[in-house]
Amino acid sequence: MLGVTFGAKHSFNDMGLMLKKYPEISPPSPVVKQVEVPGMDGLLDISKILTGYLLYKRRTIRMEFSILGPREEWPEKHSEIMDALHGEEMDIVLDDDPDYFYTGRLSVEAFDPEKVTSGVTITMDAEPYKTRNGTTTKSFTVSGSLTATIDGSRKPVIPTITTTAAMQMTCGGAVYSLAAGENVLDDVIIRSGENTFVFNGSGTVAFEYREGRF
Predict the structure, then answer these.
(1) Which residues is 212 bridged to in the sheet?
(2) Beta-carbon neighbour count of residue 66 at 10 Å?
(3) What distance in Å separates the CA atoms of residue 38 and residue 87, rounded to the nearest whole number?
(4) Tell me: the pLDDT tens digits for 20-46?
(5) Is the pTM of this model over 0.85?
(6) Alpha-carbon distance 24 to 10, whole Å?
(7) Mean pLDDT, rounded, for 136-151
(8) 83-136 pLDDT, tens digit each
(9) Which of 124, 160, 197, 203 is deepest in the core (most CB within 10 A)?
(10) What count of other Cβ atoms lies within 10 Å of the Cβ of residue 30?
């Protein structure tokens, strides 16, 4: 039975909810910034000027369920669902997309006692990207100088860079000194597409991060 896992609870197996139809997942809207420039036709798009990549607004996920069980139990069941989910921020996983999770705040719509059929609608105000379960690790062995590339997912991420020895890394025109052990550099971002890194030194370097996509 196709369902949704809310945190550690499955909608059908643990909560007695049957998904009426596939969840409605709205696409995230891009954050677009445009300004007028004297002497220029149209508008100048400065959406990427601060980060170098496009930002996105949060998205809405709407899920409609039927409440299983006799009618006299519907109000109690609705209260149980409200207690467990309403207003909570958590991760959800769709049964047919188990490799990714969505993160956001849940809202349970009011119970309507006049309805002939049971039902409850749960919405999530979600982050723009869904995130892969588990981390991705890319490792490279450096002996002298090495140029390496990492294909980034759609979501820009800051990796944890772990080295077995101190070495120098160049990316995006900037040079960074990596200490032996874990390094987290706010300016080093793995973006969508090919990311090139040049290492100088000797040892092993590993990038660990969580991929995300729409």
Answers:
(1) 131
(2) 14
(3) 47
(4) 999 999 999 999 998 888 888 888 888
(5) yes
(6) 18
(7) 97
(8) 999 999 999 999 999 999 999 999 999 876 656 567 899 999 999 999 999 999
(9) 124
(10) 12
Most confident of 17-21, 63-67, 68-72, 155-159: 155-159
Amino acid at 205: V
Give me the amino acid identity at 144.
G
Nearest Cα neighbor of 161 from 153, 150, 172 is 150
DSSP string, the chain: ---EEETTEETTTTT-EEE-S--EEPPPPB---EE--TT-SS-EE-TTTTTSS--B--EEEEEEEEEPS-GGGHHHHHHHHHHHHTT-EEEEEETT-TTEEEEEEEEEPPP-TT-SS--EEEEEEE-SSEEESS-EEEEEEEEEEEEEEEEE-SS-BPPEEEESS-EEEEETTEEEEEPSEEE--TT--B-SEEEEEEEEEEEEEEEEE--EE-
CA distance 97 to 4: 10
